[in-house]
Amino acid sequence: MATVVTPITQALEEGALTRRELKQLMQRSNGPALIRLALFLVTMLATGSLVYISMGTPWLVPAMFIHGIVLVHHFSLQHECIHYTAFKTRWLNELVGNYCGLVIMLPNRFFRYEHCDHHTYTQLTGQDPEMIPMPDRLGDYLYYLSSIPYWKAKFTELGRHCAGRLSDSEKQFTPKTEYKSLTLEARLMAAFYIIVALYSIATANTSVLWYWWIPVLLGEPVMRAIRMTEHVGRPAVYQMKVNTRSNHVNPLCRFLCWNMNYHAEHHYASSVPFHALPKLNKKLNGYVHNEPGGYLGAHLDILRQLRKKPHD
Amino acid sequence: MAEKRWQALIELSALEPDDATPVEFNGRLFGVYDTIDGYFVSDARCTHAGANLCDGYFDGKHIECPLHQGLFDARTGTAIAAPVTRNLRMIECRVNGDVLEIYL
């Protein structure tokens, strides 16, 4: 049985925070997530209304883009749910996580297993299944942001799981006893999309395109850009003090991403719920890598490194 | 192999009240849980990836792994939620005066 020194164990041993402080920060509650979820749904309703009122005008695409930015942030809530830190009640995390997964086509249980290895092997090439490699060229950077490789990977993944297969790397993080449940999950998800598509065709209703899928496709590059700020450009080493970025962003972004901009803190103590991450950020100030320039600052850092990279 | 016997593990006053406390004993790391049903002791390492469970969230009944949030019943060692699939090894314990003893 291998033992690991988790980042939080390391932080405790190095005196970055005390066990009592950690226990306090880990306290769970349903209230903050229920309030934020309600506000999130109201925001989604508001941006969906923007799409509605801009139908037939040149503002339709910008409206769908804004609505899409909100929709793709279901990822942030789902991420919080797979850690069981959004809600105190565990089944609420399952329920809401599965809802989010349907919105953005990310099977919840699969994501949970995959994300385990992301936390165990953060930023380690060949071991971190969610690692976004540092691009070699500006073209690679823009291609990643386009979301084309992301969607290619997601559709391939869903198809493979529907066929009852897992890739070799997926078998690394999935217990054998769970293979069948991941197949079932993928098939249920695919069946849901097929039913929605057939219903839309049968009723000649195109709402799912205008209010859901086109906005998601338009918004995904924003989520890709945010995901890049978490680790890309940071050293590909085991040491959590340096391999992850926390980004200081405005309150609207913090709201949408469920405080996941405090990413280094999240990796240090993934049992700390989203609403306590700002406090943990203050506590770990100077101990982890902070990007004061926020998402933009992180991308400027990535682009600076890209410019210095030898291309031959 | 030495015969099992009751051995003093830790004084009760040194335990985190209503919480999980890591205790090193003869080179092994144990987790001591002050649960709603009394004290329980297990190997402190998660059966999934080996993280120290005592750094995780404890609600009086369940201990959650700090690394991947797998869940165990701290009173029985039963693996309850993914990604953990194997139960925790529990160590028999008893209170003797103001000391917690383990049968090891």
Walk me through the topology.
The complex is a heterodimer of chains A (312) and B (104).
Chain A: H1 7-13, H2 19-25, H3 31-53, H4 60-72, H5 74-82, H6 90-104, H7 108-120, H8 138-145, H9 148-162, H10 168-173, H11 179-202, H12 207-231, H13 240-243, E1 245-247, H14 251-256, H15 263-268, H16 277-283, E2 289-291, H17 294-308
Parallel strand pairs in A: 1-2
Helix pairs in contact in A: 3-4, 4-12, 5-6, 9-11, 12-17
Chain B: E1 6-11, E2 20-25, E3 28-35, E4 38-43, E5 62-64, E6 71-73, E7 79-81, E8 90-91, E9 93-96, E10 99-103
Antiparallel strand pairs in B: 1-10, 2-3, 3-4, 4-8, 5-6, 6-7, 9-10
Number of strands of chain A: 2
Major β-sheet strand ordering of chain B:
2-3-4-8
Which two protein chains have the largest interface (Cβ within 8 Å of the partner's Cβ), and how many residues from each?
A-B, 29 and 24 residues
Profile the largest sheet of chain A: 2 strands, parallel
Distance between the termini of chain B: 11 Å
Averaged pLDDT of chain A: 94
- Give helix and strand order of chain B, one letter per element, not per position: EEEEEEEEEE
Mean pLDDT across all residues of chain B, rounded? 94
Structural class of chain A: mainly alpha
> How much helix, percentage-wise, in residues of chain B?
under 10%
Radius of gyration of chain A: 20 Å
Q: What is the string of helix and strand elements of chain A?
A: HHHHHHHHHHHHHEHHHEH
Domain count of chain B: 1
**Molecular shape of chain B:** globular
Strand order across the largest sheet of chain A: 1-2
CATH topology of chain B: Rieske Iron-sulfur Protein
Q: Look at the helices and sheets of chain B and give the structural class.
A: mainly beta
Given as residue ranges, the uncertain stretches of chain B (5+ residues, pLDDT < 50) are none
